[in-house]
## 1
Amino acid sequence: MSFDAVYQTLLGRAGTDCGAGPAGFKRLLKRLGNPHLDYRVIHVAGTNGKGSVCHLCAEALQAAGYKTGLFVSPHLFTPAERIRINGRLIAKPAFAKLCQTVLAQEKEKLNFFEILTAAALLYFSQKQVQYAVLETGLGGRKDPTNACLPAACLITSIGLDHCALLGHTLAQIAREKAGIIKSGVPVFCPPLPRAPMAEIRRAARAVSAPLVIVREGDPFTLGDINWFKGYMRLQKGKTVWPLHILGEKQVQNACLVYRACRFLGVPDCALKKAFARIYVPCRFEVLRRQQNRFIFDGAHNPQAVRVFVDFFARSPWSKNAALVCGFMRDKDYKSMLRVLAPHFSALYITCPPSVRAVAPEEVRAVVPRGEKSFFFASPGRALRAAARAYRTVAVAGSFYLAAYLRARRGLTGPSDCD
């Protein structure tokens, strides 16, 4: 089967009507030869920030000389982005072959994410990586990535997202995320609100896992931001560390990665090199095209949107900018709109390219009163209209929307494939 045919097969497993579950997934891995036991694993969970943290961890391990696998989601431009080694995306023929290998061992009907997780774990084994950085797809306790036996666990944040599956309180969601904590394995996390922090402490204590709470300032504080070149200067004592990724929480993410990687023996020189060369699209990514400046951000839940607008308000472009936004039906788009609207001169509301997207006509009913808003069925037309009227245009509300429009404007950025 071709790459496209295999991917279409996978998309047919994207619903909630199938899945082997944790026990069935472990049986699948056993039939595949337990590939997840062939390398050390860094396991990352959290409501927001886990993608940036995974990329930073993988970059640091690679800079330290380790052959490093990275498994993240969602993808922005191609599903091959989800599986990479030392920054290089898996080749499409290898992706197709691995997925077929997994499906050939199927006894219980696997879902989309289980197939991809198994393919990634098998690929990393075949390529003899020394480390693999794994991002949970949803929650942690029941996630297929939780079959791994990690060397370190990281929990980046706790917020209200995927509530129908994970719970409607921060404590319930934290309980699910804390499911990645393993016996004796250190877990690193930032300070969290009282209820979720209590859940993580309880989970760590139950399995004698050392809990390391990493505060901003340990060891980095923010020096300044170069908005036009897209990097932040972090201060570590008297030294300056450039971090080539922008965002309100990126200093905290850098502290978390630093402490976890230092525990694993990664030296400062490798971490500093990794921070300077990191590249993660659609995380407050500022790109220019002709007279316009575009800011692409994957903020897709109320917590992430609040972080995005706080950072945007500090930027030199916040006074007269448009927002192109669209949302997924299973997200709290009413709350997101209330947070986003006051920060932009006009809203260009459209539909992300997904069957789960909420239509612009439905969003119209919840736009805050008095906000200047326009509605487009086509994301491309929404972006063009915004770019004609405003020099600065932000895109947020959905990773799918940000990635689609970034590619449509010819701004796909660097991509290095096998």
## 2
Amino acid sequence: MSNIIEITSFDAPELDIYARLTEAQLYNKEFPEKGLFVAESPKVIERALDAGYEPVSCLMEKRHISGENKHILARLGDIPAFYAELEILTQLTGFKLTRGMLCAMKRKPPTDAKEICKNKSRIVILDKVMNPTNVGAIIRSAAALGMDAVLLTPGCSDPLYRRAARVSMGTVFQIDWAFLPDDSLGEIKALGFKTVAMALKDNSVSIDDPRLTKEEKLAIIMGTEGDGLADETIDNCDYTVKIPMYHGVDSLNVAAASAVAFYELCKKHNEIQI
């Protein structure tokens, strides 16, 4: 097949997109219609394809040409499919984490946050969560535990960054998400959502408070690593919720806290809806 091309040197220009362009360069904020992202691992690539993302090129270990993931290669069509021996590819930072396959894909036009909130009852708002690992893990929990959408403030890491998408196991392509404009909490409340600040405050309600379950629409707001939510944000929310903890532990990682919150605040509500 003429589109399957061997790479013999780490310095090959075909590897620039995978080895030398930064996430910001791929994002291409100045010309977003030309934006790209790199999907890592066969599972993430396949879920991106299922969601309709258009591939540009792929890079893989030689074994994938005829190995267990050859069906993904077939789905990619006639785009350039670069391959190399593992000794060449291991010079790429983190390549061993990719399960042997990377794929550059075109970004879709940004989704309007208000639009994805239509007909939704449980959403999460991430406020300045900057670590892509945490963003990916939160999105995976949101998808698995019954949340309907994820909204992110401008200070958050991009869900399509390689690490975020990989940690999410491709669930970034299975749940609606969008970036919010600045100072948009009032707009979310205007859509009928009651807002829940996840914060370590004494004047809070229990996470299993029945009032939360009965709310038709809830927006769960989670803050940045370390500092959490700003006091002003907490004061503007309808509820403040703290997860009970034991053995002197004073906080959870934001990704771990998200899983607890999503499970508790979605389970009874979803049972009612069913």
## 3
Amino acid sequence: MVWSAADAPMYLGIAADSMAVGMDGRRFSSEEGISMLDPWKAGPNYYSIWSKDQLDKVKENGFHQNFDTVPPSAFLGFCGSIPEGEPLPELYDVLGKAEEMGFVWQADSIGELADKIGVPADNLKTEVDNYNKYAQTGTDEEFGKPAEDLTAFGDGPYYAIKMASYSYNTVAGLDINDKMQVLDTDGNPIEGLYAVGSDSAGVLFSEKKPYVTFGGINNGWALTSGYIAGVTVADFVNGTDNAADILNSEVLKAQ
């Protein structure tokens, strides 16, 4: 198993006992879900917020890892995972380098941190206050995160780690219509050009609504899009319009 302290920022960004906010400074999910299928809810990026009190505990005692909800870093493309409870004496050195690289920020107050990362300060302050209350009561009133993963912030300075939303699939940026025809930059179909599977899977997710919220979407989309494209291409060759019947069928609508 291969790991290093340099993996720490990524771990902080997916930790179940962290607090994560979107680009509006609001929580968007139970943080148990940000290591799996929930980051899309935040849009292109989200921020994991930590206090020095919390980070000191990570430095001395390592990460608390609930592997029922948070996978090891190997699941996100690394070669190994930081062992649970492994002290990380280099933690602040790593965060300092990450700050120099521009994806970690620190500030003496939550308001100052909000200004640095460009989110509304009132929103972030409210989320921190609410999160501290949930940690004290053991009840996450917004997203129902278990009490064992609710950790009060404590004293600063405060840190933000910028994370990128992701999907467990290579999702290309080709836009398509419901007949799998590739669209040009004006939204018009390009005659004779179709895209299926991962090349067009980007149409299934946005920061507002996902097509599905569980793994295996690439498999289902490959089958469905391939079938529709096959009929569409046959229509193009034969001058028919069978695809319209399929798209309007109750069977497909139920998928």
## 4
Amino acid sequence: MSSRIEQIIEEIEEYVESCRFQPLSTTKIVVNKEELEELLRELRLKTPDEIKRYQKIISNKDAILADAQAKADGIIADAEAKAKELISQHEVMQQAYAQANVTINSANAQAQEILDSATSDANNIRYSAITYTDDMLENLSNIMEATLNDAGVKYNSFIESLQSCYSVVKQNREELAPQTSQATLNSLELEGEAEEE
């Protein structure tokens, strides 16, 4: 039995399939905004809060990386500004170059570390969301398997009980069969005697 979420997704797919194409287009369709929004609203209401939270975090992966990139760019810009300031001082030109290179290398390393950390965090969040969803599906699978097994046991018990009753009825009929045959013979003899009189 499919969940309501799967049913809503199927309804959305069926709805999209049933929409007409825009004139002179084979890829764009015309949709009823209210009807589609209603299906999406119901889907949102049926989606567990945990899954929505993980999906939101996963969808923010690009924002996390963009923020990390912005911080990295800011660090590099500061480093370059400091480097230019040092270079502008003629008396310490060589020292300025060396210090600028160290600062830029340090900034690049720090920026790469931020990007690596953000990527790792995003991947961990994605893995957690997938694991959580898989756990939910595993629990559902276990419940369905236990229900099927329980129904099978009850069905087999019912069949065995019915078979037992049937065997008793059959045995009783077999026990009555000789007596029934004798009663039929006696009845025929009585009818014969009555006709002779």
